[in-house]
Amino acid sequence: MPDLSPIAERAEAPETLPEITAGELSWRAATVDDAQLVTDFNNAIAEAGDFPFRETVDEVRDELSAAWVDLSTQSMLGFDAEGRLRAAGFATTAPGDVRTVRAFVFGGVHPERRGEGIGRELLAWQVARARQLLAASGKELPARIAAYAEDTDAVRHRLLERAGFAARRFFADLKRPLGAGAPPIPEVELAGSLRLAPFSPELDDATRLAHNDAFRDHWGSEPQTLEQWQSGRSEFAPEWSHVVVDDAPDVDALLADERTDASTAEALRAGEPLVVAYAYNSRYEADFPVRGYSFGYTGLLGTRRAYRGRKAAIAALAASMRSFEDAGMEAAVLDVDTENPSGAHGLYASLGYVKEHGSRMYSIEL
Fold first, then answer.
1. Backbone phi, psi, residue 322, to 5°
2. Alpha-carbon distance 33 to 61, whole Å?
3. How many angstroms separate the CA atoms of 276 and 307, rounded?
4. Which residue numbers delimit the N-acetyltransferase domain (predicted)?
5. Which domain holds residue 51?
């Protein structure tokens, strides 16, 4: 842990939030009942920016109803005189952060109302609110205010850079064809006591522990609480998702391994199943016409650090691709951090994945 001044000092949280006066909009906090309004607004931005996705009202409702989000103080919606939503801004935190405490800002301005200074003032409000959230966290950790942007969204890039954000991470959206004419899906044999299994609720928390372990050495990743892990699943496809279980783990060796985290150690002592790799997948049907093809999306893929090199994640991913193909999907899609320390980008290339789109994460480090 670096030698840091108290988070209350580093966050430089203002006592009051800046007003948003540009555009002569009327402002109020969002509610879960605004899910359809926010969905239509987000999709108008996505369409104007030629983004490779659209949102559903169920996805947005999941985001707005997250238990750790207080919309009354962490959101702002701006309406014009006709009552149309013209701008939206959110500033949120995540409860499970233990290495870096983070605040996320997202939202934007309707394409018809850009160029009036609304986005600049709204972002200033979001950053100020993010600073307040970080200061109030009481977590004496490195801190970050983060925002995301599609590579093609030059307007947002300029807005974030002018507000003091810097691009820190770059993500590649990868596609792998399926079906006739596509490369064959690899056959992967698991050795020893490793076993491929379909997703099941009984293995879900064990998979969360595997994910937290797999991503402990990934920049920007933080452990997920059970509440975080099980939220936002409106498009989740359990029938397409797979895990790898070690049916006879060397418990003594794992408990003695410094890489074994405390939560996993507790589960091992209790005799809980040990998930060592996983591929959790989703079906984003609203994106099919936008991309021009149907696909299965691998949103979460990883291997416990002690099990790397044993092809467990490849087995889960290959099983996922077969599930997609059996369901008539034309492609497999996933998103990867281009600086992933596990070398995943090269692995995906070897399996036939090719970059189609890109995005980046901007941040202010505190």
1. -65, -40
2. 8
3. 7
4. 25-195, 238-366
5. 7-164
Query: At 304, which CATH number?
Result: 3.40.630.30
Q: Are 246 and 260 in contact (CB under 8 A)?
A: no
One domain, residues 221 and 154: no
What crossing angle do the helices spanning 204-214 and 262-269 adopt, rounded to 10°?
140
Read off the amino acid at residue 17: L
How many domains does the chain fold into?
Answer: 2
Distance separating alpha carbons of residues 86 and 240, to the nearest angstrom:
38
Q: Give the phi and the psi of residue 11 in degrees, each rounded to 5.
A: -70, -25
Tell whether 230 and 309 lie within a shared domain. yes
Ramachandran category for residue 192: left, alpha or beta (phi over 0 → left; psi -120 to 50 → alpha): left
Q: Based on the domain organization, do 200 and 90 belong to the same domain?
A: no
pLDDT in tens, 88-128: 999 999 888 888 999 999 999 999 999 999 999 999 999 99
Q: Tell me whether residue 364 is in a domain.
A: no
What pTM was estimated for this model as a whole?
A: 0.92
How far from chain centre, in Å, is Cα 45? 19
- The Cα 225–Cα 142 span in angstroms is 20
Q: In whole angstroms, how far apart are CA 13 and each of 74, 127, 131, 138, 209?
A: 14, 9, 5, 13, 34
Kind of pairing, strands 295-303 and 143-150?
unpaired
| Longest alpha-carbon distance in the chain | 67
End residue of a domain, out of 128, 147, 164 = 164
